[in-house]
Amino acid sequence: MITKVMKLRLPELVGILIIQCIAFLVGTVILHVVMHFDPSESFEIATLLAAMIVVFVGVAMGMVYYERNFNLAISMGVTRKDYITGYILSTIMIEGIAVIVLYIMHWIEKFEIRLFYSASAQEVGIEKVLDGKYVLPIIILFIGITVLFGALAMRFGKKIYVIIYFLWIMMCILPGRLSDAYEEGRTTIFTQIADAISNIFRQIPQFGLLLLPIIVSIICMCIAVFLAKKQSVERF
């Protein structure tokens, strides 16, 4: 039964990988254009764009396919327990493959920068996350969030998509605004919130920081299981 759910999500995996590769190619072109005009500093733009696809497109497609595959799978005789188990396992598979491809892109772009722009100073970016110790907990957290948002989207409909869109816009805008505020020495409500959150995380030991994303992910999955048990089915 679980394999049925995993087979239903194969188009989702193919779609994410195709968009991820397109983003990497576009990012590679942008890298060479930027370096042509300003070769003093390099940045893994292509890898960053590919990572954004894994995060944003992965969540969006996961939400859409969760509802579609839920109704289809239940109509095919799959139990709710098997469906949510299969969905979690297939999400691990999809995100795992996408992250492996992301690492390959990271190594390709790193080699490309060293080959063509070895004299440039490389800025710290997405590679700090990929080469760090927190990458696995972050992946586990992302899996839990994807499963939860899929269950919430099916339960509450378009309201969740509006919330996700708002969060996406905030994630795109806030980092730049915060960076500008810190560089200019301005104190805003956003810098105060960022400082407060930063102080909280500084008080958590390193082991706790590694464990926290895993705990949050488990909580997200438990909520998704609860919602799946209560979800009605639209028969085909």
Run of helices and strands: HHEHHEHHHHH
Number of separate helices: 9
Q: Count the strands?
A: 2
Largest sheet: spatial strand order: 1-2
| Mean pLDDT reading | 76
Give a description of the structure:
This protein has helices at 2-8, 10-37, 45-75, 80-116, 126-130, 135-156, 158-184, 189-202, 206-230; strands at residues 41-42, 121-122. The chain has 236 residues and is mainly alpha-helical. It has one domain (2-230). It has a two-stranded parallel ribbon. Helix 3 (45-75) runs antiparallel to helix 4, helix 3 crosses helix 6 and helix 4 (80-116) packs across helix 9 (206-230). The longest helix has 37 residues, at 80-116. The two termini are 19 Å apart.
Record keyword descriptors for this entry.
236 residues; mainly alpha; two-stranded parallel sheet; 83% helix
